[in-house]
Write a structure and sequence with these properties.
The complex is a heterodimer of chains A (about 550) and B (about 400). Chain A is α/β, with parallel strands linked by helices and about 550 residues long. The chains are: A alpha/beta (about 550), B mainly alpha (about 400).
Chain lengths: ~550, ~400
């Protein structure tokens, strides 16, 4: 940033306030930063820190008039954006500045073909249509690395994978050769392997087209790979702003230090080769039939889980990793008999395969599950106490009220929450607290075996570390056995004593976690690890695109 | 040990969209914060809020119709004893009359008997019940409201009863119908019948509809498929003609009508509740409850029903008003409540038959219009109250 002319975007003292009824909440508090031509600036912070709101105010995409700007200016190529009227800012949007969002599933219209979605932008801003537009669309799709672009033109979004959808989103953003691309958590919803590919693509495109990039993320690992300058945001303020290497090597602000230190420590439960098996499956299969025709004849199967044999010993943690769609979650649900499956399942010495709902009930006391989404897994209409004690009502219907209350209080204390909070409702808690409540619900019955289905994926880095510590602590204290399902290998490395790697419903590799991490055997596992730990892409064909 | 972990960077900043969290004092009686916010939203719709109170007052008043319009005194003190003729039937001989039949308190002869022996009578403000015929009508029925009569019109009655003028007659504030019955009394009783009918029909058909929708949505698959086809066939039955046929076979009383209308009205909520349950059964907290071993019935009642109730509650006032309309329509056509019962539909059809007596039609029209408008306004406020964007926005 040698001269002011090199500055493409300059944000000064920007504040954003949201009105909620009578109260006004300051979401962004006097934030200033610059983006030079060709530069990548990363906004980093946990959810609620105001990073997305900052980005959206550049394009005036906030819900005005509920939102307003008490102070600040945004200069883009000498133009003040905040004071621009709506019809003029529309020329900037999608033309000079474009944006890609986190969720590729919902940012494409499911009823329009790829050609129509990209063509719309070309027609709107450039007036290109017909054969010329078609040629440009093919060019764009090739540019973002979609193979055989010509044949993809008439595809609908549901026919594409998540990574391909995000590529289409990028193609749409690039359609008008913008000067600035805003990427709002573009890889958060994607698998690690796909994430690495998308990051590489963004970096390549940026150098090739010479555009600037404003990259918003909560993941510091990504930032190091892609950004030139980092702005760390916390509670609406930029607490630290510096070149990327300086932030990593010499962080100044305590919050940045805490963020950098927020890597879950690898301290998995030790292997227990002599302990009894808690759960064992042999050749477990979950096949969903594909039915066709008038008579609904079964013409084939989607093999979600296809012949998986696992055994978990008491006190161990079995980590299950793999890309999305590899059957991890299905395996967990099948073991708990929440979906039907084929093949023997032995739980604590009893065969539970084929048992009816009623005869399963006595076993449910010993097997519990914690889900991924802390917002969806707690009933919004029940108080915390009601949620946690529900299992006690089922399994100990005659338990006196005092004892039930005592167990709830103990469970809440165990997960590090104030028992006084039990009269409140889920919406009054943050994501991390909710996940603690979900854990409390699982452990209040004092189970032996808990399935953890991506319990940390929906949480911020700092909170992730806390939940990992909590789970480890509980395992030690209560001698719990975990089946830990995750696509986040850093978290798995912190907890798993054994590991199975799944792909397309099958186990590609298994063994003691330390051994697999140190010396992965299959190409797929190696690609997975490279993407997760170093954000490196694998050669084509090894992982999904 | 755990405290140390959390102490490093506490994630205990409770972001409460309600602002200050008021700790509930009671245990379970207390309104949940969601319910409290909904009540606030309901109140914020001023029109609906006032409609709600006006409707409630009208409804309670009409429930006490016997105290407002009655042809029997509420209380008689006679020879040192207390009598409650409005609630207990006494024979004429009790008060020194000659016949063993039930006393007719409007009879001047009986009134004279009681007053002469130093008895006292307390009457309801309107001395007609819905089925009392005014035997002293100055003009042929339907007779005008008393305050519209000219001295010439009432001359005959005034002379017969030895009164000084029209103003001393017993008032029919809104006139009488074609059988000489007081319209105010009939309006009050008719309002009560309509509202009660609407409420009972709504509640019963909602219970059935919600249960049917819940079963379909929760179990899905074949249950859902068969049930849906059945409902499709059922709703394509021309219900009006069937109603006409059935009510010509059965004697149509209050409960028979209720039953007949119920046959077809329960389907209105099924689709809605079914959709809510279909959506809700895949929520993670339902999975979590299943993993706890909670039985299907409990999951449906505790976890899914509250979600479905939001949509149901929003619809309820509108179902009440359509039930009221249905009863009024049947009465108007003459297939409703048995002849003689107070009903707004019957009043409307009288208004149609006696265009020269506009007080019949106007009374019925305004009663129905006010009642339905109030219900619609309440419905709008309820819809606002349950609007999630208003709740969380």
């Amino acid at each position: 940033m040698d001269a002011t002319s090199a500055k493409l975007l300059s944000v000064r003292e920007l504040s954003v306030a949201f009105r909620q009824g009578e109260r006004e909440m300051l979401a962004v508090d006097r934030v200033s930063f610059d983006i030079a031509k060709g530069e990548t600036v990363a906004l980093v912070g946990e959810s609620g820190s105001g990073k997305s709101v900052t980005a959206l105010s550049i394009l005036k995409l906030l819900p005005y008039p509920a939102a307003r700007h008490p102070s600040g200016t945004i200069h883009f190529k000498g133009q003040e954006l905040l004071s621009l009227p709506e019809h003029e800012i529309r020329h900037v949007r999608g033309n000079d500045i474009t944006i890609i969002f986190q969720e590729p599933m919902t940012s494409l219209n499911p009823l329009h073909t790829i050609e129509k979605q990209i063509g719309e932008i070309l027609e709107l801003h450039r007036g290109i249509r017909g054969a010329a537009a078609r040629a440009r669309i093919v060019e764009l799709l090739t540019q973002v690395g979609i193979p055989d672009a010509e044949s993809r033109l008439s595809s609908y979004p549901h026919q594409l994978s998540g990574g391909q959808r995000q590529r289409v989103m990028i193609a749409m953003a690039l359609a008008n050769e913008p000067d600035l691309l805003i990427a709002d958590e573009p890889t958060t919803a994607l698998d690690v392997t796909v994430q690495a590919q998308i990051l590489k693509l963004l970096k390549d495109l940026q150098t090739r087209l010479g555009m600037s990039l404003l990259f918003i993320t909560h993941d510091l690992g990504i930032v190091r790979k892609i950004a030139d300058t980092v702005c760390v945001m916390s509670k609406g303020k930029i607490v630290e702003q510096d070149a990327v290497e300086r932030v990593y090597t010499a962080p100044q602000h305590p919050y940045t230090k805490a963020l950098l230190a927020a890597e879950p420590k690898a301290d998995p439960a030790p292997l227990q080769p002599d302990a009894p098996l808690v759960v064992e499956t042999r050749d477990l299969r979950v096949w969903f039939p594909i039915r066709r025709g008038v008579l609904r004849k079964t013409v084939g199967h989607i093999k979600a889980v296809d012949g998986v044999s696992v055994g978990v010993r008491k006190g161990e943690t079995l980590g299950v990793v793999g890309e999305s769609g590899s059957g991890k979650t299905t395996l967990g649900l099948a073991i708990l008999r929440l979906i039907s499956s084929d093949g023997p399942i032995v739980f604590l010495g009893n065969s539970i395969q084929g048992l009816k709902f009623k005869s399963m009930r006595p076993f449910r006391r010993d097997m519990q599950i914690v889900f991924q989404d802390p917002y969806g897994s707690l009933s919004p209409r029940m108080s915390i106490a009601d949620i946690i004690e529900e299992g006690l009502w089922v399994h100990h219907p005659n338990m006196p009220r005092e004892e039930r209350e005592e167990r709830v209080v103990r469970a809440l204390t165990d997960v590090g929450l104030d028992p006084e909070m039990r009269i409140r409702y889920p919406h009054e808690f943050s994501g991390g607290q909710r996940q603690r409540i979900a854990v409390a619900r699982a452990i209040v019955l004092e189970p032996t075996f808990v399935v953890l289905d991506e319990p940390t994926s929906a949480l911020d880095m700092l909170i992730q570390t806390q939940i990992v510590e909590l789970l480890r602590e509980l395992q030690k204290r209560r001698n719990l056995t975990y089946l830990f399902i995750s696509h986040d290998l850093k978290v798995v490395a912190a907890l798993a004593s054994r590991l199975i790697v799944m792909r397309n419903g099958r186990v590609v590799e298994e063994g003691p976690a330390a051994q697999v991490f140190a010396n992965p055997q299959s190409d797929y596992t190696r690609a997975l690890f490279a993407a997760a730990f170093n954000l490196e892409t694998a050669p084509e064909g090894v992982v999904a695109q | 040990m755990d405290a140390q972990v959390t102490a490093k960077t506490p994630d205990t900043t409770t972001v409460s969209p309600v602002g200050l969290v008021v700790p509930p004092e009671g245990h379970r009686v207390d309104l949940s914060p969601i319910a409290r916010r909904r009540w606030e939203n309901f109140k914020a719709n001023r029109r609906g809020y006032w409609s709600f109170w006006i409707f409630l007052v009208l409804f309670v008043v009409s429930l006490l119709a016997e105290f407002i319009a009655n042809d029997k005194p509420l209380y008689i003190s006679f020879e040192g004893k207390s009598y409650f003729p409005a609630f207990v039937t006494y024979s004429e001989t009790t008060f020194g009359g000659e016949f063993e039949t039930a006393a007719d308190y409007r009879d001047p002869y009986l009134q004279k008997l009681i007053v002469e022996k130093g008895g006292r009578m307390i009457w309801a403000p309107i001395r007609y019940s819905y089925d009392t015929h005014n035997l002293d009508l100055p003009t042929p029925a339907p007779s005008k409201p008393t305050w519209m009569l000219t001295e010439k019109e009432c001359q005959a009655v005034v002379e017969r009863k030895k009164l000084s003028g029209c103003r001393d007659l017993e008032y029919n504030w809104l006139g009488t119908d074609d059988q000489g019955r007081d319209i105010v009394a009939r309006m009050i009783y008719g309002f009560r019948t309509s509202v009660l009918f609407g409420l009972i029909l709504t509640i019963v058909s909602s219970v059935i509809g919600v249960a049917a929708g819940a079963v379909q949505g929760y179990f899905g698959g074949w249950t859902d498929l068969l049930f849906q086809r059945f409902i499709e066939i059922w709703t394509s039955v021309p219900s009006l003609y069937l109603l006409l046929i059935i009510s010509s076979v059965l004697v149509p009383g209050f409960f028979v009508l209720l039953g007949i209308l119920l046959l077809f009205s329960w389907v209105s909520l099924v689709g809605l509740v079914r959709a809510e349950f279909l959506r809700g059964r895949n929520f993670e907290y339902i999975q979590a409850a299943r993993a706890l071993g909670v039985s299907n019935v409990v999951i449906m009642f505790r976890h899914l029903l509250p979600n479905a109730m939001v949509a149901t509650m929003t619809f309820l006032p509108f179902i009440v008003s359509s039930s009221v309309m249905m009863l009024t329509a049947l009465d108007f056509l003459g297939f409703g409540l048995p002849p003689g019962s107070p009903s707004l539909g019957e009043l409307l059809s009288q208004g149609k038959a006696n265009v020269q007596a506009p007080w019949l039609g106007l009374t019925a029209f305004f009663t129905v219009a006010v009642m339905l408008s109030l219900l619609i306004f309440i419905g709008e406020a309820v819809r606002d109250a349950f609007d999630p964007r208003k709740t969380f926005g």
